[in-house]
User: Fold this.
Amino acid sequence: MNARYSKIWGRLTESMLFLPTMALLLILIADFFLIHNFFAIEVKDGHLYGNLIDILVHGSPTMILAIGMTLVIATGGVDLSVGAIMAISASVAAVMINPTIVGMNLTDPKFFLNNPQYTWMPLWAVIIVPIVIATLCGVWNGVLVSYGRIQPMVATLVLMIAGRGIAQLITNAIQVVIFNDTYAFIGNGYIILPFSLYVVVALFVCAWLLTRRTSIGLFVESVGINFQSSFYSGINEKRIKLFAYAFCGFCAGIAGLVVTSNIRTSDANNIGMYTELDAILAVVIGGTLLGTGGRFSLMGSAIGALVLQTTITSMLSFGVPASAIIAVKAMVVIAVVLLYAEQVKSFVRKLGNFSLRRETAQ
Amino acid sequence: MPDSTNDFVVMTGIDKSFPGVHALINVDFSVAKGEIMALVGENGAGKSTLIKILTGADHADKGTIAFAGVIVSIRSPLHAQELGISTVYQEVNLCPNLTVAENLLIGRQPRRFGVSIDWKKLNAQAREYLKELDVEIDVTRPLGSYSVAIQQMAAIARALIVSNARVLILDEPTSSLTAHETAQLFKVMKKLKNEGIAVVFITHFLDQVYAVSDRVTVLRNGTLVGTYPTASVSRLELIRLMLGRSITALDNMSAHKMESSRHISAEPLLVADQLGLSNSIEPFDLSVHAGEVVGLAGLLGSGRTEVANLLFGIDRPDNGTAVMGGKPFKDFSPTASIARGIALCPEDRKVEGIIADLSVRENIVLAMQAGLGWFRRIGTKEQYEIADKYIKLLNISTPTADQQIKNLSGGNQQKVILARWLAANPRLLILDEPTRGIDVGTKADIQKLVLSLADEGKACVFISSELDEVLRTSHRIVVMRDRAKVTEFSGEVEETEIMKAIAGIAS
Assistant:
């Protein structure tokens, strides 16, 4: 009996999801005791509201980015440019809705006040084109890394810096307010739950199918662990890397749309600022190894993003000023580093064995 | 004769378990001052684990270690070094981009006025230390610019200087050395022995056990078989002790080979015509027939691996043409080779072979899956079937197909890599040193496997540093020297004939 418990404990602690899930639970338990009514959920007009829902909504962009970032990190790389790609995607969408910012004259200066639902391009194009352009940005990163053999950090730094400039060029550095309600539905709409959550779930399912129901996931892990062995085994490791970066760009494109839609503004200067760091942190909390790559867990990364967002939301409702949140994130980083240290891991394993042994002794 | 009651290091009742493996079971091991103790055993016998415990890299579950008569608990590799236990590994772990002298004396550089490094003195000291080992080289050149043998000497010198070693452990130091370099290493070992250092020598080459060691300890499956004065056990006896079974199977092989040579097809499967790559390998002609084993003999660096890499498309040739099954091809890449039916089991298992963190199952299906592409995934159930089939067929010892390959012993890892390529169902299988660093039993298994593959009508290119192995398995032998094909033998050949060709002596 005890041997079985020990085995289950072993398998549980070995699982990639163990630590992120435990972290999430711990924070939620702390919230339960420390913050009044943290778990309260209200129903208004058939929609759900509450702290938990807020966490899911505000965590959506990070979750979306983390899904793409997981593949990149699993190949042994990193993508610093996702924030900038978000800005590009947002700017492209803004221009396609409201062309005045690029100097096109509409007959009536109060045009948008009278026709708030107007979009210059059809709405489907407003959604598709930015995502395509974001994916191309990802392809650019992928080409630099795989065919150009440039260090991922350096290669994606190019677009991280240039991308925001490009986004400002597209919108003439003007903040564009978006009136179109259908577009705003992506980030604000509700179908019982916030619409952006459906976007996250759909993307997650797609990513899971794409990696686990094809051989891409295996190849990504293989390339991350040992790219040379992978090459000798006939895996086109360059194409796998290219794919990972392109997919990461694709995700960043979607995240850009979700954020602009949510705040109804395209602000090339601020959208997606520092989100690359959140995404990387979420992936690392999720158990995918930064730097070495290899085994990855999409679910781990999604939970990682939630751990991050729950921490932030809890701190805000606890009364920590918003300006101090960065310091909180830093503490999360320290906690993660400690948790994933081999010494701590083996300590947890021993703890399990020890408590079981004591039970047997009694 | 060293006095075995005067043992310097005594390990008693060492026991060690890893998840799923009982690596060492109540093992005793000792070595005396001024003695060379050989440690032999098949892969997975527990040699590495025992050494790891002695050097503090791992800790025993049970048992004691006595050092110079005092029981110690070795906490870490650093602690072991402080005690005077130094290890030189198969792979030299010094810094190739620092100079030899820096490598030797890093951390204890002689200083001028206590501040700046006294380079003159540093280099002189380094030269002095190496001279003691009969190595005279320019110590101001980067370590990486020297051969592996010299690097190993530097590693030994460093071990002796830094920790003032009283026990020196050499973990398969000769696997990548030439005969001459090995002889040089042995000279150094004997010299150290005479200076009263206790030397532990791990090797797969039985010749070398007899050449240098005073006593030999045999491990098998984690248990101690025994410790014997080397002179008192015969070669055959030693092999019997290591394997626990007789190896007549090895000698039956040449009959098998004669038998199988009748199946060789008349039409060549692969023809290389003046294939070459500048700065890598001179243009060569080579043809391989279905059902045939072609051996590539030659010294390390003679161009054997370069031939394999060209045929498999790791490198792209800049000269000549290649034809596979009657169809000329120009797209040289591993992916294209798999589609064409060519497989390469690479030389460096760790760097080019295994994907350490993936499971045995995933490692086995990898090449087959790469051949199928991204979107035709082999179902999980089928993956298990394939993996289990090869685990059984090749007798891979692993608890389950889900075990990470890095937890397997070297020989079993090699079998997994072989399984990877057999699963891809190639028509031509290139094996680059498939038996390097693995035990005698597995070696025989692999040699037999190669012949039975030829029986099934597959073509094989077999590369090995061990001439008797090439002789035993190959229908035809191609000799390489100085990055060029020198000559070709078929039919019955004398070993000396081939050796002369390898050495470049006109016969």
Notes: Residues 49-306 of chain A form one domain. The longest strand of chain A covers residues 41-44.
